Structures are given as structure tokens and as C-alpha cells.
Amino acid sequence: MALLRCRGLRKEFGGHAVLDHLDLTVAEHQVVALIGASGSGKSTLLRCVNLLEELDDGTIELDGEDISDPRVDPDRVRRRIGMVFQAYNLFPHLSVLDNITLAPRHVHRRGRAAAEVQARELLDRVGLGAKADAYPDRLSGGQQQRVAIVRALANSPRLMLLDEVTSALDPELVGEVLTMIRDLKADGMTMVLATHEMGFAREVADEVCFLDAGRVIESGPPEQVLGEPTQPRTRQFLRRIIEAGRL
């Protein structure tokens, strides 16, 4: 069953179509990796799914509900979606624990004690239990990004959106975050992730979608899209990735 269905999405900025009648379907428990050059529409697609950008045309369905309907309350929808950005976006004046429990307490109206128990359990699972009382500036980039993912998980989302979550990290810290995403896949979390990590996309994704000029040009299993692409534009993109030593 489709958890997420995007049909004919169009989004323009200044008369330029960043999404151009894009279609995407994501089944429950599926991991879909979005690849493509910068400006191909990956981040805009994720922002539209999370209702951070208003569509110019098309529909987005989550669990069969048209969440792109202007009458839909965006905050209600976002309670079912976890989104993690490349820039962490942790509140610097709050401890790790308070960053994680903020939304469960104030949006989902959970009690402080219950929210903190859940947060500490999640932190323990990712090896950051000892950092609960630390502030973001005392954490490495990899630790901050893992906290950002835990913060999204604390809302018990149906869908996780991950936007280039390793691109701001030093190479030696990337592995910490990728291990966490592998664990989420093993737990059955439905994820759509935009990434430049082709090797990781090959390993963790059930489906890879190559975006170009706001459209899904090619999609399929990782071994097909990354190993034997059928579209000339996909082959050109991957050739450049190989030349750069990133595949």
C-alpha cells in the first residue's frame, strides 16, 4: 500500500519550474533515495511533502489523505512526518534532552516525564545517552545530526524525510549518521532521502529515483539505476560521479 503518493507536482520560483509535473509513490516500509545534480528538485520535493512550500499544481497524498488541499492544517500533517535537514537546526540554547522533548511536550501534549523517558531511550539506542544534558555546541557534527534524527523520531512519524543529512559533515563523521539510517531501515521506517552518497543509496534504498530538471527521469532498484541505467541523462550524471570518485 502506498504511504506517500505525489502526482503531477509543479513548483515554480520566479517563473522557473523547480518541480515539473513530478510523480512519486512510496510504499510503507520502503526506502527511496533521490539522486541528481544540485538544483534538480530533490530538496524542493521534500519541502513540498512536508508542506513547507506551497505547490503550484499537483497533489500529495499521505495515508490516502490529500494533504496538499489548502484546507488541511499543515501542523497536523507535520506531526506524522519527521524531517531532518543538512544543517541540523538544533536550538543552541536548549540541551540535547530539551531539543528532543520540545515537540512531544508542546505539540503532542505529552507529559515531561514520559517525553524524557522516550528521549533517553532513543539516545541510548544511538549511543548518545551520555549527551542528554549537553548543549549542541559541545557535540561533533555527526553527533548533532544524530540528535536531529532522534528529535524527528521522538514524534513517532509515519514518514521520515532526510535532506542531504551527511553533506555538512566531515568525511570521518558520515559513517555515524549512515549507521543510524541503516538501523532505521531495519526497524521498518519509511524514508525518502535526498543524497549524494551513491554507495549508501545502493546499499540502503529499495528504489532509487534520478531527478533532472524537476522530473523523475529514471527510477528502479539501485542495481539497475546505478549499475545499468537506461536513460542517457542518468548515464551522464553517473559518469561524472564516477570521475569524481564518488561511486
TrEMBL record:
GO molecular function: ABC-type amino acid transporter activity; ATP binding; ATP hydrolysis activity
Organism of this sequence: Micromonospora saelicesensis
Subcellular location: Cell membrane
Signal sequence region: none
InterPro entries: AAA+_ATPase, ABC_ATPase_HisP-typ, ABC_transporter-like_ATP-bd, ABC_transporter-like_CS, MetN_ABC_transporter-like, P-loop_NTPase
Family membership noted in the UniProt record: Belongs to the ABC transporter superfamily.
Annotated Gene Ontology cellular component terms: plasma membrane
Domain ABC transporter: 4-238
Membrane topology: Peripheral membrane protein
Protein name: Amino acid ABC transporter ATP-binding protein, PAAT family
A UniProt-annotated Pfam family: ABC_tran
Keywords: Amino-acid transport, ATP-binding, Cell membrane, Membrane, Nucleotide-binding, Transport
